[in-house]
Amino acid sequence: MKILVINGPNLNMLGIREPEVYGNGTYEELKMRITDHCVTRGAEVEIFQSNYEGAIVEKIQNAYFNSVDGIVINPAGYTHTSVAILDALKAVSIPCVEVHISKVDSREEFRQVSYVRYVALTTITGKGFNGYLEAIDYLKEYIENGSKDTKS
């Protein structure tokens, strides 16, 4: 099983950026946790981060041609603004799970809007780095056993 983890703008600044919201863990630590988790689950993983919307769209499109089985995506600030990322996810029809480190529903009002949520199987928020691991497990179960009805 091949999983693509996509991270949007400013996530490369984890550990520096608003530690009271995102914690003290660094982006490198997040990548290590994701990689280790995928190894224990028998999944191949590619982790990608960009501050540029077009690069994220291209990565999603390329996932189709690279036979990716599932996508875990934290669009970060693009969550609330990017119809282009939504359209790319719709175009490739690869199962995806939206994840956010913070509990976005408890933050500023504009963060309540998520375009990705229209296509995501589920959205996992407020669980820190563990949310990514939960998203990977959710995707793996979905792909191997069919759809799930529960939302996180």
What is the CATH architecture assignment?
A: 3-Layer(aba) Sandwich
State the separation between the terminal residues, measured CA to CA: 22 Å
Per the CATH scheme, the topology name is: Rossmann fold
Element-level helix/strand string? EHHEHEHEEH
Number of helices: 5
Describe the largest sheet: 5 strands, parallel
CATH homologous superfamily assignment? Dehydroquinase, class II
Helical content (DSSP H or I, runs of 4+): 25-40%
As for the number of domains, it is: 1
What order do the strands of the largest sheet run in, or round the barrel if closed?
A: 2-1-3-4-5
β content, as a range? 15-25%
Low-confidence stretches: none
Summed over residues and divided by their number, the pLDDT gives a mean of 91
Characterization of this structure:
With 152 residues, the protein is an alpha/beta fold. It has a single domain, classed as Dehydroquinase, class II (Rossmann fold). The chain contains five helices and five strands. It has a five-stranded parallel beta sheet, with helices on both faces. Helix 2 packs parallel to helix 5 and helix 3 packs parallel to helix 4. It is globular. The chain starts with a strand and ends in a 7-residue tail after the last helix. The model has no long low-confidence stretch (mean pLDDT 91).
